[in-house]
Amino acid sequence: MRAFVVSFFLSIVFTFIVMKLNLTTGIIPSLNVSAGLLGFFFVRTWTRLLHKSGLLKQPFTRQENTVIQTCVVASSGIAFSGGFGSYLFGMSESISKQSSNTHDFKNPSLGWIIGFLFVVSFLGLFSVVPLRRIMIIDFKLTYPSGTATAHLINSFHTPHGAKLAKKQVRALGKFFTFSFLWGFFQWFYTAGEDCGFLKFPSLGLQAYNYKFYFDFSATYVGVGMICPYIINVSVLVGGILSWGLMWPLIENRKGDWYPVGLPSNSMSGLQAYKVFIAIALILGDGLYNFLKVLSQTILGLSHQLLTKKLSSELPVADHLIECVKSSQLSYDDKRRSQLFLKDQIPTWFAIGGYVAIAAISIGTLPNIFHQLKWYYILVIYIFAPTLAFCNAYGCGLTDWSLAPTYGKLAIFTIGACAGASHGGVLAGLAACGVMMNIVSTASDLMQDFKTGYLTLASPRAMFGSQLIGTAMGCVIAPSVFWLFYNAFDDIGNPGSEYAAPYAIVYRNMAIIGVDGFSSLPKTCLLLCYVFFGAAILINLIRDRVDKKWGRYIPLRMAMAIPFYIGPYFAIDMCVGSLILFIWEKINKSKADAFGPAVASGLICGDGIWTLPASILTLAEVKPPICMKFLSRGSNAKVDKFLTSQG
């Protein structure tokens, strides 16, 4: 019970963090380390207090720590797979007004969002449960994130590890406090539009006009410390290529490539180039990685099936345990396998659960989205277990979940089938949500099974924790989004703090699937083809060249993000990378031990500040000061006015 109480409060914390990242840039680092560390800290503190009072009945174990981490990640994962910064918000009227299709929209409402998530978020869990033995024990898939999390949790529960974890939590707490207070301090100077440190033209006014500035965001400095160097550099390269070179050059073709005098957010002008070239890069990179992981999955399966004689009938648990005992495994592996196989989840329960939830979903979803017909949903659910298996297997090999790619596949197929006259845009976006939730939760569950296998946690406990965490997320994530949606009037608007860049990207993908490319301005389609082909070509080069040099080639998906919103956050992330790089040069062991904790503190503190900031906004409490940095022309006018009043 205490594990789920702690999980509930940590889920709220992490959902705020993921939601802020979703609605600002869409870049979300792995929060497994933070969840495991904070879970360890809170329960260890709780049990120590009970121990001193003589009321402690159950000691804190690594298995309980694993359950907490699983529950928190499952809950906060709904904030990503729920599409609050992508397909779901892309349905809204505010996003539709920024696209060429302004009539197909469905505004967010707390009731239907919670209902939608409850009927689609559990299917992925039931779809892969019968395959857990094959994935974890027979195929011995690594699941790098799950393995790393297990080693971290195991290390916490050793005398040396507990001492280090205590120091890590102390470091996290210090930077959490600093980040929270820094957010509070910045709030004082944001009384009007374009005010405060967020709008500080640190690299000059001309650079500021093209989104090149440091916005003093503790969140993205922390994200930069967690993300690999190549991701941060890739984002910066994408920002320089787009806002430093391409957009100024395309602006000079105004009147030739697109009409003069269009609004800044018109999809017939420069905005179309920003959105659709980013889409081309994302689709090119996604298609290549989809085919790459799919081929690796097929080859891996073929190898496994050729080298292992898998029985067509699943053996009972007792027989499997005997097989494990007699095999040439280490003692630790034998112990893990025995426990993993002893606590069975019946296959009939998984299949029955999938069929029951699918039936409820087929009957419910057309009432939420009348454009999404029941037979579209049925087709998705027939193919979904296969795609969920492919994603879970590929994730075990590469640590790469392709859930957004499978979602985009659903956008194009269902949107094209529905057509423009039958609300194809909304049908495609809703189908994307169904598919993304299934394949995302399936790979997450397998990662958690791997963590549980290595920490000797019961598979039933892991599955139960995932179910409870998902149920929490289906309520917490929409509630947090609803707070953001009502507190910030400019949410989703280009140039605002919460621009939700992927919302317009996903909506325009749906429009392309339904209407084609006919509405794009001159040469935009040609540039899209060029960048689509370039993404595939660069991927091929990266995979073919020696790893020593290939690791320096920028990642296309990361490069695409600043094409639409600008490179300001990339500068924050590179500052985080620079801090970590210098720290590693001074003391690598200390940087490795405390870097993730410091980064997590920066992200968590700034993320949690959005809660009181939202409440203050809803209560119409305004900051007292507007610190604004004006252009030279504006400064001259102010000087002239002050002189005349002198």
Automatic annotation (TrEMBL):
It is found in: Membrane. Pfam families: OPT (PF03169). Keywords: Membrane, Transmembrane, Transmembrane helix, Transport. It comes from the Eukaryota. One of its GO terms (molecular function) is oligopeptide transmembrane transporter activity. The keyword Membrane applies. Its main location: membrane. The chain crosses the membrane at residues 25-46, 67-89, 109-131, 171-189, 229-250, 271-291, 345-362, 374-394, 409-440, 461-485, 519-541, 561-583. It is a multi-pass membrane protein. The keyword Transmembrane applies. One of its GO terms (cellular component) is membrane. InterPro entries: OPT, YSL-like. Belongs to the YSL (TC 2.A.67.2) family. This is Metal-nicotianamine transporter YSL7. It comes from Carya illinoinensis.
